[in-house]
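Researcher: I'm comparing several assemblies side by side, and this is the next one on my list. It has 427 residues spread over two chains. Same procedure as the others: predict the full complex and return the structure.
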Amino acid sequence: MLRKYSNHRTIGDNIKLGGLTAFSAGMVNVLSLIVFFAFTSNVTGHFAIFAQEISSGNWFQAAVVSIWILLFFLGNFTSNFLIIHGNDYIGRYLSHAIPLILEVLCLLIVGIYLQNFYTESLHETEFLISLLLFAMGLQNGLTASISNSTVKTTHLTGLTTDLAILLSMFTKKKFRNDKSLVDKAHLLMTIMFFYVVGGVVTGLFYNFIGNSTFFIVCVVLFIIILYDYYKLSMLRFAHRKQLSVKNKFTISVVEYEEEKKKTCNSN
Amino acid sequence: MKLSFAYGFILVLILCSGSILLKGENPEQTILGKWEEVSWEFERVNTASNQMSIELEENQKKEIYKNLIIHDAEVWEFSPEKELTLQQSGKSTNTKLNWTMKGRGHILELKYKNLPAETYQVQQLTNDELVVYFNFDLQIRGLVKIKFKKVENESYAKKI
């Protein structure tokens, strides 16, 4: 899911990554709406609100919204920065996993703060929304960067447009038979489905466990990180085993040849 | 050149927003004090006619008011301790509840004992005027708009 980059990714990799990250984004968006009355997985609405607040002369609110937009921007920037620069120093898997680790940290901070310190002041609310927007920016930047902009999971505007275009294309037979288009439609529908499911699950969970639902989002993200870690470990193990078998075989061949030489010399 | 312009623009935006946040007035501070109800306007009432302003039937009013905390208050006093005192006409006792602001300061949430929280959308908040909307789920499909004007502080009035 994480370790492959750009065109090396299969449709299966993208569907797994898209499904799980869309699920977590849906969860975070609904959670922030319930707790803070603000959307955090997309910024289209925030741009509209920013313009509206400026036109109404509400400079304080306009400044708050502009900081939120900037933090989403910064999240995307950080993700791609880590991916393109970290690749040479810390390896592909780690440079792709760090944005997700940072996202988990942000969500943990929000969850822990809500449970232990939150006094429901506006400053706290604005700060926690900022953290969530940064986290969503990190996630969106990561999925878009490593999938060559194929997977974007925190907002559904572009996705709905793409899906509508694809479905209208499928009214022609030649497009219905195009595997790459069918794969793309599968991916988009998976993202849409899991985003909604994430939101519904959150609504249900929140009634029972309240703010602890943030920790469930962290678990979902950990699954993404550990899935690739596990796969990578298995690959390394298999590679080492292959090497050791090869080495053993080489050693036995060398020993056999040496013994053969000795017997020839003695004769 | 273009790149430095982009980075410069972001930096200017951060600086402007930061300075407004530091110096500007937080809605949580603006709302503090006494507010007197000026009017209640019901919008988008279910009706066959195309009239814009509609008199509510008595049974509709009763149903709306039944579960509403603030329906018969005339003066709302917001304290910095996040306590809202509702002063009712003809009653010596005041109702006290808790208030918080959510979102970017556009949501006013009121909590009273164990009742479900009521949320109001703050449409306008200046030093003199407060306009909030409340959304009903009853047959009053739509919104109720409550307008307030700021009541001058008694001590301030005495000083004058």
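Model: For your comparison table: Residues 114 and 157 of chain B are 37 Å apart (CA to CA).
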